[in-house]
Design goal:
The structure holds 2 protein chains of 2 kinds. Chain A contains 9 helices and no strands. Chain A is mostly helical. Chain A has a domain at 54-178 and 217-248. Chain B is mostly helical. Chain B contains 1 helix and no strands. Chain B is rod-shaped and about 55 Å long. The chains are: A mainly alpha, B mainly alpha. At the A-B interface, α1, α2, α3, α5 and α9 of A face α1 of B.
Chain lengths: 253, 44
């Protein structure tokens, strides 16, 4: 096997992503053991508290790719470089996955705890709006138009993500909501011991997984832009060749 | 254990979605990287 084909087999992986991937897998296994086996049920929530170890990491982590998408969109609008565009689209896709999972796991946790899957609470509604906005961003990217036009439209949508995420974050402080406010960071935290450790570990593992996905997705977006550029170069070369042929034959064809 | 169904669905949905997304990303990266010369793949 040649060096080139070996490199091709690596795809978007590198030593750093492999280390990150292994850490994420080991961390996930640890959280699964702690969350499902080692920790006990909650006094009030009973065993539905075990859903917190998947819900909280999703909603804690989602702010990072959302912020990255907005900042990268702004920088693309200023500098028009492929790198910022690739970063913005990578962050938008990863954010969509985390926000979507946050909504789903929240609904599954809400049913046994609140008695409903969904309520038009400020936190839930603003998160749903963020999810729709992210879907809008990804839809803009797929519209059949010139690359620069669709990237510009998507970047404008990307700018709206940070204000929406701020509303999501502070919705529990600004409005009277069914959703509780911060759990780990508040001074009088109602969680302690192994449950607290598991929750914090689950958030750390969530960040590791998000970083792994972000790096891979960014590299995918970068490769797609290279392929698109090469396709454009090829098309231009073909048109030039056609033009040269016409000139050589005196335009008889 | 109480709420077994909810706990199972929540965990399976999360791990299943993230695992599938990770696998799809790896495959997509491998397919695309074959179409781009190594010098344009700064990480390899």
């Amino acid at each position: 096997m040649s060096i080139t084909s070996l490199a091709a087999d690596d795809g978007t992986s590198s030593r750093g992503t492999r280390v990150l991937g292994i850490l994420t897998l080991v961390g996930t296994a640890a959280v699964a053991y702690l969350g499902l086996v080692a920790t006990g049920p909650d006094v009030i929530q009973r065993d539905s508290v075990r859903l917190i170890y998947v819900h909280v990491p999703m909603v804690s982590v989602m702010y990072v790719p959302v912020a990255i998408c907005s900042i990268a969109s702004l920088l693309w609008l200023r500098k028009r470089s492929d790198g910022w565009d690739a970063l913005a689209v990578a962050a938008a896709e990863v954010a969509t996955v985390f926000v979507g999972l946050g909504l789903v796991t929240g609904a599954i946790w809400g049913r046994p705890t609140w008695g409903v899957y969904w309520t038009w609470d400020a936190r839930l509604t603003s998160t749903a709006m963020l999810f729709i906005l992210l879907l809008g961003y990804l839809t803009m990217r797929r519209l059949p138009d010139e690359r620069s036009v669709r990237t510009k439209r998507a970047a404008v949508v990307g700018l709206l993500l940070i204000p929406n995420a701020i509303i999501v974050k502070f919705s529990v402080d600004w409005w009277l909501t069914l959703h509780q406010d911060a759990t780990i960071t508040r001074a009088d935290a109602q969680i302690e011991g192994l449950q607290q450790f598991t929750l914090i570990l689950s958030v750390v593992v969530g960040y590791l997984g998000m970083a792994w996905l972000m790096v891979h997705r960014f590299r995918i977006a970068w490769l797609e832009s290279r392929i698109e550029d090469r396709g454009l170069d090829l098309a231009i070369a073909e048109r030039r060749a056609e033009g040269d042929t016409l000139v050589a034959t005196g335009g008889d064809q | 254990m109480t709420h077994v169904g909810y706990v199972a669905v929540g965990w399976l949905a999360t791990l299943g979605t993230l695992g599938s997304y990770a696998m799809i990303s790896i495959r997509r990266g491998k397919t695309l990287s074959r179409q781009v010369p190594p010098e344009e793949r700064r990480w390899s």
